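Field log, afternoon session.

UNIT: design team B
ACTIVITY: writing a sequence onto a fixed backbone
BACKBONE:
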């Protein structure tokens, strides 16, 4: 029965909500949609970050951090204010996107160029 409920719920059914992301003492306005977290202008991730055409991985570095650095961003740990959830994000100036969303987008882009 549970799988039927999950099967009928699509990604389009998930509502967007505004929230605050706290990075050290900095507070940024973000959109939260399910597990995706991003700043308003980063809904289209390519407007905020220049994704690499080919990833380079390093043995001493988290692959998500590698993607962020290679996209001209800085990986950071942050807290979602409403839920107190700790998340990993990529930041560039006041732009932010959650790292799992960034990797998913990158994988889709490279699979379908």
């Amino acid at each position: 029965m549970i799988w039927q409920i999950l099967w009928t719920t699509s990604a389009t059914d998930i509502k967007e909500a505004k929230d605050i992301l706290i990075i050290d003492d900095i507070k940024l306005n973000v959109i939260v949609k399910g597990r995706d977290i991003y700043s308003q202008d980063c809904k289209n991730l390519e407007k905020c970050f220049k994704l690499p055409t080919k990833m380079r991985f390093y043995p001493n570095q988290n692959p998500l951090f590698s993607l962020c650095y290679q996209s001209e961003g800085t990986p950071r740990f942050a807290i979602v204010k409403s839920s107190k959830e700790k998340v990993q994000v990529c930041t560039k100036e006041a732009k932010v996107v959650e790292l799992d969303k960034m990797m998913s987008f990158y994988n889709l882009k490279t699979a379908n160029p």
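LOG NOTE: Confidence is low (pLDDT under 50) at residues 1-11.
NEXT ACTIVITY: expression trials, pending approval
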